[in-house]
Description:
It contains 7 helices and 23 strands. Helix 1 runs antiparallel to helix 6. The chain starts with a helix and ends with a strand. Helix content is 22%, strand content 40%. A hairpin with an 8-residue loop joins strand 4 and strand 5. The protein folds into 3 domains: 80 residues, Gyrase A, domain 2, CATH 3.30.1360; 137 residues, no CATH class; 113 residues, no CATH class. The relative contact order is 0.14. The longest helix is centred in the first third of the chain and has 19 residues. The chain is α+β, with helices and mostly antiparallel strands.
Amino acid sequence: MIKSLLLILTSLVLSGAAQASEVRIKDLVEFDGVRGNDLIGYGLVVGLNGTGDGIRNAPFTEEIMSNILERLGVNVSGEQYRPKNVAAVFVTAELPAFARAGGTIDVNVSAIGDAKSLMGGTLIMTPLNAADGQIYAVAQGTIIAGGAAAEGEAGGVVKGVPTAGVIPSGARVEREIDFELSSLSTLRLALREADFTTAGRIENAINRSFGKRVASMLDSGTVQINVEATGRRSTAHAIGEIENIMVRPERRARVVVDQRSGTIVMGEDVRISRVAVSQGGLTLRIQEAPVAVQPNPFAEGETVIVPRTNADIEDEPGINLAEVPDGTTLSEVISDLNALGVKPRDMIDILKSIKAAGALHAEFVVH
């Protein structure tokens, strides 16, 4: 409970600091056209220590291995082989904006068969395709797996996920994305969190920085820039100046709840209307205690299992808060609940009920 309260108080301090401080525009928006592209490939990992795919359960592993060997001039038609040191994998990566041929990017490797571990394996040459079907990079290298696995004759243990891993700088860019940034006459800024107030502040900050009207707010999530009106040598120079302008963003009142860990995070603007809170509960316990009844000595019969059930209902002490006045912050209510010894999960149920009653004025997010 103390840990939960510390998390809440820390979030309040950080939220208040974020409200009062300014951040760079580059941390609030995405520049139209300046984005990455997802890549995917299907390949083979070799060199595993007996932890690869079972060929019977993953026949596609044998198929791709045969294709690779035939491309290398090795004829394996009609051959029967059952290697345990290979595994079929999916390879994914993101091609960054303006990546140039010859550059390297990180790749993620994930097993798709019944391989037990990719630790120590090497990914052989795997083309990476984009959504248009074109090959933009080729991946190859030693896999760094994020787990460990050990197995004996009667059991085993697994920690983490040894069937997935990464290859830092494991793919080399072979094709560039055709995008002429310098040809843009207008540039749009897409806010990561759409908000009319924040978009208006971005517009005013940009116009104030350039000393004239070069930015206009289109909606809550878009601010358009007239690149020619900025008077800069190129679009890249204009972006470099715009992205470092400081703006104070507006944050929505929001409460985020994690039911698994019992964590509650909120902003300082969350308010509660007049409401009364009362909580109580019953605990029902049912326990089976079967009894074995045997026949008397030297008598004919058989042992019979007779069911026995113990049932008990316990009335738990309830929580009763006085009526909460208008304008009370959620942090004050949480503090009162903490003082009463309410468990985090019970606190989450109370917050849900307050939201359902229409008294919690904030976006309520539950994970």
